[in-house]
Specification:
GO molecular function: oxidoreductase activity, acting on the CH-OH group of donors, NAD or NADP as acceptor; quinone binding
CATH architecture of the largest domain: 3-Layer(aba) Sandwich
CATH class of the largest domain: Alpha Beta
Distance between the termini: 70 Å
Family: Belongs to the short-chain dehydrogenases/reductases (SDR) family.
Largest sheet: 8 strands, mixed
Organism: Enterococcus thailandicus
Order of helices and strands: EHEHEHEHHEHHEHHEE
Helix content: 40-55%
Shape: globular
InterPro entries: NAD(P)-bd_dom_sf, Sc_DH/Rdtase_CS, SDR_fam
Keywords: Oxidoreductase
C-alpha cells in the first residue's frame, strides 16, 4: 500500500479516468481529480462516499480556465503536501473530415486536449522539482496522435502535441527524478463505443473478421496497468506505452533510412 502518496488525475469521473481514481484509492493513495460537469463530480463523490475528503478531493472545474487550473494544483499541494503521480487524462473529440471541420470544432478540441495541459502541468512540474524521490507524469495520447486518423485532424493533432510535450518534459525532469511518459490506451469507453459499434456492424455486413486492434480491454484494466507502471522502479522516461487492457507494449522510435528521389521525366 502507498499510504503517503498522492495522485492528481485530470478527467477522473468517467471512463479510464474513473478507473484510475478507483485504482489509486484502493491502493492507498490520496487522490485529487475534477470534471467540468457537476453531475459527474457528484456521482464520483457519492460512489466513493466512504473515502473522506483527506483521501479523495473532487472538484467541478473547467480545465480550459488556466487560473482555476493552477489554483486547483495549489489546493492539492496545500491539502496533501505533495504530488507523486500526475496523469493528464482530460480529453474530448469532435470528429469531422478536415474540409468540413469548423474553426470552433478545431479550437475546442485543441483547447481541452492540449492547450489546457500548460497551466496545470506547469504547476505540477514546479512542485515535483521541489520534492525528493521519484515522481511520475503520464500524458494520455492516442493511436490517432501516433499515426493519424481520418476525420480526426483536431484530435490527432492535440494528441500528437502531448507526445512532444511528454518527451520535452522527460528531458527537463530527468535530473529531478521526474519520469514523464505518454500512454496510448485502448479501452471500451464512451468515446470508443460508437467506433466499435460501427466496426461490429460493418463486420456483420461484410462477413469480415473483427480486427484484432479493436479487441480492447476495460477502463479498469488500463487503469491497473498505468498504476503498475507508475510504481515500477525501472520504468524510465521519455517513452510511449501502448496499453490494451492489461497488455503493455512500448513503442520503439522509427529508424531513419536514406530517401533517394529518382529523376523524373520532364
Amino acid at each position: 500500500m502507498n499510504m503517503n502518496k498522492v495522485a492528481l488525475i485530470t478527467g477522473g469521473t468517467k471512463g479510464i479516468g474513473r478507473g484510475l481514481v478507483e485504482t489509486y484509492l484502493l491502493n492507498g493513495y490520496s487522490v485529487a481529480t475534477f470534471s467540468s460537469e457537476k453531475i459527474n463530480t457528484e456521482s464520483l463523490r457519492e460512489t466513493y462516499v466512504d473515502f473522506p475528503e483527506d483521501k479523495l478531493h473532487v472538484k467541478t472545474l473547467d480545465i480550459r480556465n488556466e487560473d482555476l487550473s493552477r489554483k486547483f494544483v495549489r489546493e492539492v499541494i496545500e491539502k496533501f503536501g505533495r504530488i507523486d503521480t500526475y496523469i493528464f487524462n482530460a480529453g474530448i473529440c469532435q470528429d469531422k473530415s478536415f474540409g468540413k471541420m469548423t474553426g470552433k470544432e478545431w479550437t475546442e478540441v485543441i483547447s481541452v486536449n492540449f492547450t489546457s495541459a500548460f497551466g496545470m502541468t506547469q504547476e505540477v512540474f514546479r512542485q515535483m522539482k521541489k520534492q525528493t524521490g521519484r515522481k511520475t507524469i503520464f500524458f494520455m495520447t492516442s493511436l490517432s496522435g501516433l499515426e493519424g486518423s481520418f476525420g480526426q485532424a483536431n484530435y490527432a493533432g492535440s494528441k500528437a502535441g502531448l507526445i512532444g510535450l511528454s518527451k520535452s518534459l522527460a528531458i527537463e525532469g530527468k535530473k529531478y527524478e521526474i519520469e514523464v511518459n505518454a500512454i496510448s490506451p485502448a479501452a471500451l469507453t464512451d468515446m470508443t463505443s460508437p467506433i466499435i459499434e460501427k466496426i461490429t456492424q460493418n463486420c456483420k455486413n461484410t462477413g469480415e473478421l473483427f480486427p484484432d486492434d479493436w479487441k480492447i480491454g476495460s477502463p479498469k484494466e488500463v487503469a491497473q496497468s498505468i498504476y503498475e507502471l507508475s510504481n515500477y522502479s525501472k520504468l524510465g522516461t521519455g517513452k510511449i506505452f501502448s496499453l490494451n487492457g492489461l497488455k503493455i507494449e512500448v513503442y520503439k522510435p522509427n529508424a531513419k533510412v536514406s530517401f533517394s528521389m529518382e529523376k523524373e521525366n520532364d
